[in-house]
Design brief:
By secondary structure, this protein is of the alpha/beta class. It is 57% helix and 14% strand. The chain has twelve helices and eight strands. It has helices spanning 12-24, 37-47, 54-60, 70-85, 102-109, 140-150, 164-172, 174-191, 196-217, 221-228, 235-244, 247-267; strands at 5-8, 30-33, 50-51, 63-66, 92-95, 115-120, 129-136, 154-158. It has an eight-stranded mixed β-sheet, sandwiched between helices. The chain starts with a strand and ends with a helix. The structure holds NADP nicotinamide-adenine-dinucleotide phosphate. NADP nicotinamide-adenine-dinucleotide phosphate (NAP) binds at residues 8-14, 33-36, 39, 54, 67-70, 72, 76, 96-98, 119-122, 172.
Length: 268
């Protein structure tokens, strides 16, 4: 296991992953650094972690999570390059920056250091996220330890780097698509007379339950739909309407549109 874990940037995503890592760290110290230290200080108190700074994390930690925005990554790593170059021990850089390849991180850091690229989504904040990851110049053991470290955040799955953009377009963007669906279904419930808070609570729990049923039984989504649709019943009428309005095609196209935009940004 990693003997020391560091975070540079403890914003929304860095902070959520630090919470998970603090649980998966098996007692190893967690160091937190952030541009505005108050944020890291508050989190350090919550997690019983060490308040730190970028240089100390870069000097001391065996795994260094880079939680800054992609547009500031080059500057942050340029500042830290001499510190990293002076290290004699092995360490891993773990970047969560959308759209930056593992090789780009190596180039920005100024050395062929081991890099893990990870793609988390926002439900990692409640331990129900999806994190895809891939490694460059890392060992199998480091990949295994990385998975163990972040398992408290949710599903942690290794993929080839050429599938990262597709994965992000699905599970990274997906919480927004799901939020739209939940809001719309709850609106329907309100239109039928349910109070707003109940409509939203029922919808969210129903979506969670449907996903849990699918994951735990391995049932095909088509079979799950058939199981609810009694012949001549009510649900099939709703399904008919969704098909008529192109619901499936819209959902597919949402993922494809996000993917195409990711490719465009990568070229720009
Ligand atoms: N949010 C998502 O859904 C999501 C999904 C996948 C990947 N990501 C990736 O996660 C990374 C962080 O995104 P986010 O949504 O968590 O953004 P965020 O909330 O703005 O967090 C970025 C953090 O970096 C800190 N920071 C900026 N410059 C720094 C520096 N020089 N040294 C140390 N810390 C510095 C900021 O500190 P201040 O408090 O001073 O601003 C802020 O706390 C991005 O690379 C993004 O691509 C995010």
């Amino acid at each position: 296991m990693f003997q020391s874990i560091g975070f540079i940037g403890t914003g929304h995503m860095g902070g959520a992953l630090a919470r998970a890592a603090a649980k998966g760290a098996a007692g190893a110290p967690v160091y937190l650094a952030n541009r505005s230290p108050e944020k890291a200080k508050k989190l350090a108190m919550e997690l019983d972690a060490k308040l730190s700074d970028n240089r100390t994390v870069a000097q001391q930690c065996q795994i260094i999570f880079l939680g800054v925005k992609p547009q500031v990554m080059a500057r942050v790593l340029k500042d830290l390059a001499p510190v990293l170059a002076a290290r004699k021990d092995r360490f891993v850089l773990a970047s969560m920056a959308a759209g930056l390849s593992a090789q780009t991180i190596q180039e920005m850091a100024g050395g062929k250091y081991p890099v893990i690229r990870l793609m988390p989504n926002t439900p990692v904040a409640v331990g129900a996220g999806v994190i895809q990851y891939c490694g460059l110049d890392v060992t199998e053991e480091e990949l295994k330890d990385f998975k163990t470290l972040l398992t408290p955040a949710g599903l942690v799955d290794q993929i080839n780097e050429d599938l990262c953009d597709a994965a992000m377009s699905l599970s990274g963007c997906g919480p927004a698509f799901c939020a739209l669906l939940i809001e719309a279904l709850a609106d329907g419930g309100v239109a039928c007379g349910l109070p707003r808070d109940k409509a939203q609570m029922y919808t969210a729990q129903m979506v969670k339950g449907a996903a849990k049923l699918l994951l735990e039984t391995g049932i095909h989504p088509g079979d799950m739909k058939d199981g609810v649709c009694s012949p001549g019943g009510t649900t099939i009428q709703g399904v008919r309407l969704l098909e008529e309005r192109g619901f499936r095609a819209a959902a597919m196209d949402a993922v494809i549109a996000a993917y195409e935009k990711t490719l465009q940004l990568g070229q720009g």
